[in-house]
Amino acid sequence: MAEAPLYFSAADRQRLEPHLPPPQTSSRTSSHSQATDLSPPSCSALPFVSLTFATSLDSALSLGPGIRTTLSGPQSKAMTHYLRTRHDAICVGVGTAIADDPGLNSRLDTDEGSSRNTVSVTAHQPRPIIIDPRLRWDFTAQSKVMRLAREGKGLAPYIVTLQKEPPVQKKEILEGVGGKFISLNAAHDDEEKIGGTRRLDWRAILSAVRQEGLRSIMIEGGAEVINSLLGEEANLVDSVIVTIAPVWLGRGGVTVSPPRTHNVNRPVARLSDTMWMPLGDDVVLCGRIAR
Ligand SMILES: NC(=O)C1=CN([C@@H]2O[C@H](COP(=O)(O)OP(=O)(O)OC[C@H]3O[C@@H](n4cnc5c(N)ncnc54)[C@H](OP(=O)(O)O)[C@@H]3O)[C@@H](O)[C@H]2O)C=CC1
Ligand SMILES: Nc1nc(O)c(N)c(N[C@@H]2O[C@H](COP(=O)(O)O)[C@@H](O)[C@H]2O)n1
To answer: Which residue numbers delimit the Bacterial bifunctional deaminase-reductase C-terminal domain (predicted)?
Structure first.
């Protein structure tokens, strides 16, 4: 079935503005200071990071592992597609790439009040970034994000991995549509942290993204990605924009609930400077991680 036009009003855009990267986001150092330097970014420069996802009332992103689940209504979905026009990159973990076969483009309708006979889709597209350390995502040329890139409706993905030599066939598919693999080293203390699974350090991921000239990134999920960024890595997050849908998915869902790493008597993270914005049946919560 054809997707309904995704329209996001000028008034709603204005309300979101304080929570978005500035239109010409300048490079940023790791200590979060702003710089207006036009020279190539240093290794410690990071992009503006927004954490954006849709959740149920019981904190679930989906009905279960591997199940693509629609939570956002039409208005909040349009908001998400507006966010996609306002970031240079869009990021998901490999779990999401496998579960959802996502497009990761913006399909925002730019024609306010048009006759709706034709839809003029936004020109600015974010660069998809997939975190896939072990190259588990068995993508093909027919995967949605590859197809959209071929059709000029989105950008080809960059896949961030720990593999130094990705399979040649995969390289061909990816590079054929304009994407590439970005190979990084594992985080130092990873073996201890997650039972032997090799991890990527978020600061290294973000630094690599910035080195590609991408000045802002919206991180959509899934749960493992969000939980890690709300935990020990929360200092890397500039803005949080959560769509809350009025539904309970029930136990067994894939949930946002970061680990209690420091002190069990204190919350893991809290938002400050909050703004609640009803959109249709949903509400969108914007804020900053209180530091
Ligand atoms: N409602 C919403 O807004 C959204 C919902 N979703 C849903 O979320 C679910 C997927 O979530 P989930 O299963 O948690 O998967 P994720 O998309 O979070 O991917 C998790 C995997 O990504 C890799 N990864 C993530 N962070 C790191 C890191 N720092 N270093 C190395 N590897 C890393 C790991 O791969 P490996 O195991 O190979 O090491 C990990 O298993 C799906 O059902 C999807 O539909 C997803 C996005 C948004
Ligand atoms: N904002 C939002 N609302 C939902 O209800 C969702 N299920 C998601 N999921 C995210 O969007 C990706 C799918 O994007 P495409 O429509 O295929 O471009 C999915 O992979 C999740 O990252 N988001």
So the answer is: 47-285
Report how far residue 186's alpha carbon sits from residue 198's, in angstroms, rounded to the nearest whole number. Answer: 6
Judge whether 28 and 45 are in contact, CB under 8 Å. yes
How much distance in Å is there from the Cα of 220 to the middle of ligand 1?
A: 9
Q: How does pLDDT run along the chain (291 residues), one tens digit per residue? A: 778 889 999 999 999 999 999 886 544 443 343 444 556 787 779 999 999 999 999 999 999 999 999 999 999 999 999 999 999 999 999 999 999 999 999 999 876 544 444 445 567 999 999 999 999 999 999 999 999 999 999 999 999 999 999 999 999 999 999 999 999 998 865 544 555 567 899 999 999 999 999 999 999 999 999 999 999 899 999 999 999 999 999 999 999 999 987 677 888 999 999 999 999 999 999 999 998
CA dihedral sign, ordered 163, 167, 168, 173: negative
pTM: 0.92
54 pocket-lining for ligand 2 (C-beta < 6 Å): yes
Q: For a substitution probing ligand 2, which of 16, 104, 243, 286 has the most ligand atoms within 8 Å of its CB?
A: 104
Query: How far is CA 126 from its chain centroid?
Result: 10
Q: Is 80 touching ligand 2 by the criterion CB < 6 Å?
A: yes
Topology at the third CATH level for domain 42-252+268-289: Dihydrofolate Reductase, subunit A (3.40.430)
Whole-complex ipTM: 0.98
Atom of ligand 2 at shortest range from CA of 104:
18
